[in-house]
Specification:
With 130 residues, the protein is mainly β. The chain has one domain: Metal Binding Protein, Guanine Nucleotide Exchange Factor, Chain A. The chain has 1 helix and 10 strands. A 7-stranded mixed sheet has the order 6-7-8-9-4-3-10. Strands 1-2-5 form a 3-stranded antiparallel sheet, with no helix packed on it. Strand 1 and strand 2 form a beta hairpin. The longest helix has 7 residues. Bound molecules: zinc ion (2 copies).
Length: 130
């Protein structure tokens, strides 16, 4: 259904289900991890996610207890976010998708932590927390 890859192309993945929604997370960890105003993710079942290439290039960082962020160890592209609190699902970074997302519901989350220099003006729902 979807293919994705990192900046350098060493890591590729496949998602075997349609992506049904997307979240733009403004928490400080996503901002720093992405080096951007927010991180954009689709949440999909682990059972639908598979590495297609370069799994040995995927590095893992525990950003808080029980929370893991993965990235390509060659180019630094952020790839996943997952939590022990939600063991069935994985958040996949939308910026690494190579296939069109299509029209799905989107929202901003953790807007109470957003960067002061960024103004959300797209009309999407905003949630102060998750
Ligand atoms: Zn890479
Ligand atoms: Zn976040």
């Amino acid at each position: 259904m979807h293919d994705g890859s990192c900046l350098c192309g060493a890591v590729k993945y496949r998602i075997d289900v349609p992506i049904e929604s997307a979240s733009h997370c403004h928490c400080s960890q996503c901002r720093k991890g992405h080096g951007a105003a927010f991180g954009s993710y689709a949440t999909v079942p682990w059972s639908s996610f598979a590495w297609a290439a370069g799994e040995d290039s995927v590095a893992r960082y525990t950003s808080s207890p029980g929370v893991t962020r993965t990235f390509c160890q060659h180019c630094g592209a952020t790839l996943q976010w997952y939590s022990d609190a939600h063991p069935e699902t994985v958040g996949v970074t939308l910026g690494t998708l190579d296939t069109p997302l299509g029209v799905v519901p989107q929202k901003h989350i953790y807007t109470e932590s957003k960067a002061g220099w960024y103004i959300i003006a797209d009309g999407l729902p905003q949630e102060p927390g998750s």
